[in-house]
Design a protein that fits this description.
two-stranded antiparallel sheet, 16 helices, 2 strands, elongated
Length: 355
């Protein structure tokens, strides 16, 4: 009866029926098997009336991009990557009104256990797509299970590797005594002092840096600005390198080049991955991103305003801060950078000045 009804409605083919009969499955899943293509997405399904999940997902994604929901390259690519690698093959080819709660749960539960972060993100994306379909009255209800329904692995969060503030003088000596050339040394010190992401320093352009004052300004990210290395928050950012750091940067500048830090081998900007690897010669667990945590520890120990600490490292504004604390904090950042150098990188562990 089920096969006959599906054939009359044009929802299945002989190959699909044969495949469905060959698979042992609960009766309530038989209809899903009948409608599932045998080879390739959407092989024998008519999508003229109801959009597939793939179509709805890409419609939702296009809306998010138009709203500038994500500004960082990795963040922009994450939703598509998670969907195409996991959900697309499982139910992307199906009309969105034929996707069952069981399909979604079976796909995402496995992902939650193997790659929790990806599973959590993909659940969020799928839930929003189904909600969009509900709002457009394409489906009557959202079949996506609540996140609490999934079994989650009990794992310790793997934070970015960092070092204690007390290790900063030793790190400075390690960098300066290392075999890296002057460009990499200057870039490494600039990265640690700035507390920014590695791409912000590796792709820093001479047009955005003033050698005379040490001030650098990374432009605001927008749709018309495809530059790599802009701020993840999408806002303009400015700070002033202390004189000691500025001297190191200026000494290695290649006049007329696009970038501040230029690899002597490739004649292009320094490779962000190379900077990361250089830090690991000091501590194998150390990451470039870990210096953001290191700065927060230093700021706490030196009674720096917590709000200024977050703005120094360009953390996103939330809540009341987003609406009521939009004033320029450059005048606070620059003294913090100078004090950081004075108390950390240019002092040995006993406090004696070394540079």
């Amino acid at each position: 009866m089920r096969i006959s009804g599906a054939v009359k409605r044009g929802e299945t083919s002989a190959d699909q029926v044969k495949r469905a009969l060959d698979i042992t499955a609960p009766l309530n899943e038989f209809d899903d098997l009948l409608s599932k293509p045998v080879i390739g997405p959407a092989a024998e399904i008519d999508f003229s009336k109801i959009p597939t999940f793939d179509e709805m997902f890409r419609k939702w994604y296009k809306m998010q991009m138009a709203a500038n929901r994500w500004t960082h390259k990795a963040s922009i690519q994450r939703p598509l990557g998670a969907y195409e690698n996991h959900a697309a093959k499982a139910f992307g080819y199906l009309p969105i009104n034929q996707i069952t709660r069981r399909m979604i749960f079976g796909t995402l539960q496995e992902l939650f256990l193997e790659h929790y972060k990806t599973g959590k993100d993909l659940h969020c994306y799928c839930n929003e797509v189904f909600e969009l379909a509900v709002d457009l009255e394409i489906i009557d209800s959202n079949p996506c299970p609540h996140k609490k329904k999934f079994t989650k692995p009990k794992r310790k969060v793997a934070h970015h590797g960092t070092i204690a503030t007390s290790e900063l003088p030793n790190l400075y000596q390690h960098v300066m005594n290392g075999k890296s050339d002057a460009t990499f040394k200057a870039a490494m010190i600039a990265l640690v002092v700035s507390g920014l992401r590695v791409a912000n320093i590796a792709y820093l352009r001479q047009a955005h840096y003033n050698p005379a004052t040490g001030q650098f300004t990374i432009p605001e990210k927008d749709d018309d600005n495809p530059m790599v290395g802009l701020m993840k928050t999408g806002n303009e950012y400015s700070n002033i390198f202390p004189p000691e750091v500025c001297d190191m940067i200026n000494a290695q500048l290649l006049e007329g080049h696009e970038f501040v830090f230029v690899s002597r081998h490739s004649k292009r900007h320094v490779n962000p991955e190379s900077l990361r690897k250089n830090f690991k010669t000091f501590d194998p667990n150390l990451t470039s991103h870990g210096f953001r945590n290191c700065f927060k520890e230093w700021g706490h120990l030196n009674d720096v305003n917590p709000f200024l600490i977050d703005r120094y490292t360009d953390h996103a504004l939330k809540g009341n801060d987003a609406a009521y604390r939009r004033f320029d904090t450059l005048e606070g950042r620059a003294p913090s950078a100078a004090l950081l150098c004075l108390s950390g990188y240019w002092s040995d562990p006993c406090g004696a000045q070394t540079a």
